[in-house]
Write a structure and sequence with these properties.
By secondary structure, the protein is mainly beta. 6% of the residues lie in helices and 44% in strands. The longest helix has 10 residues. It is globular. Plays an important role in DNA replication, recombination and repair. Binds to ssDNA and to an array of partner proteins to recruit them to their sites of action during DNA metabolism. Keywords: DNA damage, DNA recombination, DNA repair, DNA replication, DNA-binding.
Length: 163
Amino acid sequence: MSGTLNKVMLIGHLGDDVKVTYFEGGGAIGRFPLATNDSYTNRQTGERVTNTEWHNIVVRNKGAEICEKYLSKGDKVYVEGRLRNRQWQGEDGVTRYTTEVHVNDFTFLSNKNEGQGSSMQGPSQSSYNNNAPQRAQQPSQSQPQSTPQSNSFVQDDDDDLPF
């Protein structure tokens, strides 16, 4: 295979609210931390072990505005994008490095309608694709909304396999 691939797909919970920076030309960049968990049962002790990884997420322009409006700390989201490494000089003169996920597609997985009237239409299953002509797709009330557990990409947390 002669080509290369830089693709990241994550399902996790926001560790903080989305922070958006707006620019003069109308552009925007949103940033937030995303936590993913890996759980397994230790075969020797029988104890449940959970490891948490933190990811720096970057969303641009209209996607940043949508995330700022609908996402908050603790919400579950699916993001898809590319890994980017970045370096900068700190105030102390030390060169620092970070790895970020630059998002081009995301889907909200948190159910914002729980405990609210059925007439409320929230972004619980909204999707965004940076490359698609239609920017945001809100589910209509006539379409049945699936729960995150019914999606094929959601991992069952009751597995005791380490992968």
